[in-house]
C-alpha cells in the first residue's frame, strides 16, 4: 500500500495569540493510501475545511506535519505538491475561472505550462470523462450547479492528480445535481483509479467510502469503516450528524417489535433481513 | 434584464468581419480613429462614408442593431451640428433671419464634424457588435505584450478583465437577490421619498461588497490550488489565428489612408 | 473572523488580482443595473450608481484598485453599451478620478477611515473627471462648447455618488473584512 | 389571510427580445393557516412564483389576491409595503442580506422599516434570538463574525421580527449540517402550529415536504401541474417521475417492502415512524392469521 497523504499530530489555530480559544484543528493524525475513498464527516465548523487548506499548503500547521506522497509539505515543494492534488470546493460559482467550460478546464494546464496540442487533447478527454464534452463553449451562468461541479472535476483530473479532494462539493446542489456529481466520482474511480478524499456532512454520501474520519470540534473523534462509525449511533446525532436511512429504519423496526437479525447500513441488507427473519420461515 | 447586459452588444455571427482576428480588428479600429482626422473636404468625407458602409455591409449586422446603438448619441450628434452652425462665422451667409445667420463655413463644419463623429461611432460599434468582450480582451493582451518589458503587468490585467467579465452575470444575479431580500424587509430603492431611497442603498451595497470579497477569497484559493502563480511560464489555451483575411483588411485600410492623403486639400 | 494569515507571497498577489477583478465587475454592475430615480429630469431622472461604486472602491481599497476598477469597469460599460467611442476617454478620466480619491482618502495612513478626508477626496476628484472628459470630447467634436453639454449630467452623477458613497463607506469600514 | 393566484403568467424581461416566460397560467390557493409545500425540478419556476406572494414580482397576466389586496396584471400597484410586512420571505442563503453593525440592529431593521418603534423592535429581537437557538450575547456581535449556521439563524430572526402572517421559505436549510437542518425545520413547524402561521415552503427535499406540509403543489416547466395532500401526491410515483421528481426515500422504501410482502400496506407512510408502525402491524396481523 502506497501512502498518498498523511497527517501527523497536526494542530492549527486561526488565532495563535489567543491560546484559550479552541483550535480549528487539534492533534489530528490519519493517513490515506493509494486507491482509497476516505470520507471526512463532522458538523459545521468542526474543522474539515481547515484540514483541506492544510493539505493544499494554503495554511501550514503550527504543530505536527502534513505529508503528501511521503514528503513533508513545505513552502519549497508546495507547487509540485499541488500539481498532484485536485480539489473541488463547495460553491460551484466561486471556482470557475475561465470564460467558457473548455477555458476553465485548461486553466491548471496553462499554469503548469503544458504545450498547446497536449492541452487540447487533455481538455477534451477529461471533459468526456465527466460527460460534459457537449458543453465545450458554454458559459458558466448557463450551466446548472451539478454541471459546474463536473466541470470543476474535469479541471482537476486534467492534471492527472493522484488525489482528488472534494470539500462539500455537493452541499449546495439540488438532489439531481448531487447524484450527478457522486455518480461521476464513482465512475472516475473505476476508470482511472483515483484516490478520493471527500468531505461532507451527508451521511448517505459517506456510506460509499472505504473509511470515515469523524470530526468533532476540531478533533478526530473516531476513524473506521462506515459500519464501525455508524455503530457509534447516538454519538453521531449528538455531534450534529444523523444516521443513514437504513440504520434509522432498523432501529425503529426493532423498537416497534419487528424481528431483525442485526444492524444494517444499506437498504438492501435491511430488506433481506426483513425477509429472512419474518417471511422466509 | 440579465441576458441583455451580459452579451452586451455582441451579436454572434459568421460574417467576414466576425471571423477576423481580434488583433486585426483592434488595430484596424484604432488606426481608423486616427485616419478619420485626415479627411477635410467633400471628396475625402465621401470616401469615409463609402468605406464605412462597405464595412457595415461586410459585417452583415442587421441595421436595427446598429441604429439602436446610435440612440444614446443622437442628441449629441444634433447638438454638435447646431453648435457648429450657429457659432461659426466664416464664409458667405447662406441664410439670414434677423440677427440669426447661417454661414457657409458653419454648415460645412457642422456636416463634416457630424459625419466624422458618426463614422467613428459606427466603426467602433461594429467592433463591439462583432467581437465578444472576451476576444477583445485576448486581442488587447497580445497587442500589449511588448509593453511587458516596461513592467506593465499585461497578463494580470488581461486575466483580471476576463475574471471580471466572467463574474458580471454572477454579481448581477446577486444584486438582484439582495435587492429583493431587502425589499421584502421593507427597504426599497425604487419607491418612497428621496432620502429613503438613498438610505436604501446601504442595505444593498454592504452585503454586495461582502459577497464580492468572499467570492474573491474563494476564487483566489481555487486558482492557487490549481497552480496559478502569476503569468510566468504559462502557456495559452486560447489561441489567436491570423488569416489572410486579416492581412487584406489591413491592406484595405492602408489603401484608404493613401486615398485620403492624396485627395485631401 | 480574522483574516487568514498570508503564508506565501503569491497568495496575496493572486488575491489582489482577483479582488480587483471583482471590483471591476461591481463598478460595471452598479453602472448598468443600479439606478436611482431623481425628481429632476436630466437623463429621464435616472442616475446610475457607478460613480458611487467607484468612490467606495477607492476609499475602501486605495488608489491603485480604485483606479483600475473605475477605469476598466466603466470603460467596459462604454464598450458594451452604445458608447464604444468613449471607452478610451473613460479609461483615462475615471482612472484618474479613482486614483485621486484613493490617494487622498489613503493619505498619511488614513486608509479611508476619516470621513472628512473621504468627503474631501471625492469632491476634489470631480473637477479631475470633468476636465478629463472635457478635453477628450473637445478633441472629438473639434469644438469647446459641445462638451459643456455633458457637464451638468456628470455633476449630478458625482453629487449622487458622493451622497451615497460617504455613508456606505462609513458602514463598510466597520465590517471586519474591510478594516 | 388567504393567498390566491388566478391564471398567473410571468415573463422575465417583458417586451425585450429576451422575453422569457417562467410561469404559465398558474392557479393556486393557499388558505389561511395551512402549511403549503411547493416542489419541482430545478428551473421549474418555484422561486418565480414565490416572489408573487408579496408583490416583489407583478404578474404579466392574471391576478394575485393577497388577503384583501388584489394585484392585477397591467395595473399599477401602489403601496405594497403593508403586504410585504404581512408576508415575510426567507430567501435561499438569507445570510447574504445581513448588513448592520450588530445582530440586534439587523433584526430590528425589518420591523422599523414598517414603522414599529425601536423599543418594540428591540424586544422582538431579544425574544427571537432565543427562538432561533442563539444566546442573547449574540445580539451585540457583528453578524459578519458569526459562523454560517449562526448567520442563517440571525437572518431568519430578521424576517420573523416583522411578525408576518404568512412566512415563505425558499430552501431555508441548504448547506447546513443535519442537526442545523432539523432544528430550523422543527422551529418553523412549531411556529406554524403555535401561531397558526401560514407557511409556504419551497424545497427540493421530498422528505421535508412529506413530513411537514398539509398540501403540496408540483411545479413543472412553469406550470402548476399537480396539487394535493402529501399522501395523494406521493402515492403515484409514475406521475412524479414524469415531472423529474422522486418520491421521498421512505415512500420508495415502502414500495420495496410491499413487493417483498407481496401485499400493500393500508396507507402511504410519510414518516419513518409511520412506516415502522405499519410494518409492525402488518406482520402482527399476518402472524395472527396463520
Ligand atoms: N478564516 C478564519 N478565521 C478565523 N477562524 C476561522 C476561519 N475559518 C474557519 N475558522 C474557524 O475554524 C473552525 C473550523 O472551521 P472550518 O471551516 O474548518 O469548519 P468546517 O468543518 O469546514 O465547517 P463547514 O461544515 O461549515 O464547512 C470554526 O470554528 C471556524 O469558525
Ligand atoms: N432574472 C431572470 N431573468 C431571466 N430568466 C430568469 C430569471 N430568473 C429565473 N429565470 C428563468 O425562469 C425559470 C424559472 O426559474 P426559477 O428560479 O423560478 O426556478 P426554480 O424552480 O426556483 O429553480 P431552482 O430549483 O433552481 O431554484 C428558469 O428557466 C430560469 O432560467
Ligand atoms: Mg467547510
Ligand atoms: Mg429557486
TrEMBL record, chain A:
A molecular function GO annotation: ATP binding
Keyword tags: ATP-binding, Cell membrane, Membrane, Nucleotide-binding, Translocase, Transport
Major location category of this protein: membrane
Start and end residues of each ABC transporter domain: 5-242
Pfam family, one: ABC_tran
The keyword NAD is annotated on this UniProt entry: no
CDD domains registered for this protein in UniProt: ABC_cobalt_CbiO_domain1
Family annotation (PROSITE patterns): ABC_TRANSPORTER_1, ABC_TRANSPORTER_2
Subcellular location: Cell membrane
InterPro entries: AAA+_ATPase, ABC_transporter-like_ATP-bd, ABC_transporter-like_CS, ABC_transpr_CbiO/EcfA_su, ECF_ABC_transporter_ATP-bd, EcfA_1, P-loop_NTPase
Membrane topology value: Peripheral membrane protein
SUPFAM superfamilies the record matches: P-loop containing nucleoside triphosphate hydrolases
Family recorded in the similarity comment: Belongs to the ABC transporter superfamily.
Full protein name: Energy-coupling factor ABC transporter ATP-binding protein
Organism, as annotated: Ureibacillus galli
Lineage start: Bacteria, Bacillati, Bacillota, Bacilli, Bacillales
TrEMBL record, chain B:
Topological relation to the membrane, as annotated: Multi-pass membrane protein
Gene transcribed to yield this protein: ecfT
Keywords of the record: Cell membrane, Membrane, Transmembrane, Transmembrane helix, Transport
Superkingdom as given in the UniProt entry: Bacteria
Organism from which the protein derives: Ureibacillus galli
Pfam families given in the database record: CbiQ (PF02361)
Classification via InterPro entries: ABC/ECF_trnsptr_transmembrane, ECF_transporter_component, EcfT
Name this polypeptide is given: Energy-coupling factor transporter transmembrane protein EcfT
Family: Belongs to the energy-coupling factor EcfT family.
Transmembrane feature ranges: 26-56, 63-87, 107-129, 242-263
Described purpose of this protein according to its UniProt entry: Transmembrane (T) component of an energy-coupling factor (ECF) ABC-transporter complex. Unlike classic ABC transporters this ECF transporter provides the energy necessary to transport a number of different substrates.
Subcellular compartments: Cell membrane
Record note on quaternary structure: Forms a stable energy-coupling factor (ECF) transporter complex composed of 2 membrane-embedded substrate-binding proteins (S component), 2 ATP-binding proteins (A component) and 2 transmembrane proteins (T component).
Chief site of localization: membrane
TrEMBL record, chain C:
Residues annotated as transmembrane: 17-36, 43-61, 67-93, 114-135, 155-172
Pfam families named in the record: ECF-ribofla_trS
InterPro entries: ECF_substrate-spec-like
Keywords of the record: Membrane, Transmembrane, Transmembrane helix
Protein name: ECF transporter S component
Top-rank taxon: Bacteria
Species: Ureibacillus galli
Keyword Repressor: no
UniProtKB/TrEMBL annotation, chain D:
Membrane topology, record value: Peripheral membrane protein
Keywords carried by this UniProt record: ATP-binding, Cell membrane, Membrane, Nucleotide-binding, Translocase, Transport
Top EC class, one word: translocase
Main location (coarse class): membrane
Presence of keyword Translocase: yes
EC number: 7.-.-.-
Subcellular location(s) of the protein: Cell membrane
Transmembrane intervals: none
Entry GO MF terms: ATP binding
ABC transporter domain mapped to chain residues: 3-246
Pfam families: ABC_tran
Database matches in NCBIfam families: ECF_ATPase_2, PRK13634.1
Assembly information from the UniProt record: Forms a stable energy-coupling factor (ECF) transporter complex composed of 2 membrane-embedded substrate-binding proteins (S component), 2 ATP-binding proteins (A component) and 2 transmembrane proteins (T component).
PANTHER family: ENERGY-COUPLING FACTOR TRANSPORTER ATP-BINDING PROTEIN ECFA2, HEAVY METAL TRANSPORTER
Function: ATP-binding (A) component of a common energy-coupling factor (ECF) ABC-transporter complex.
Family: Belongs to the ABC transporter superfamily. Energy-coupling factor EcfA family.
Name this polypeptide is given: Energy-coupling factor transporter ATP-binding protein EcfA2
Lineage: Bacteria, Bacillati, Bacillota, Bacilli, Bacillales
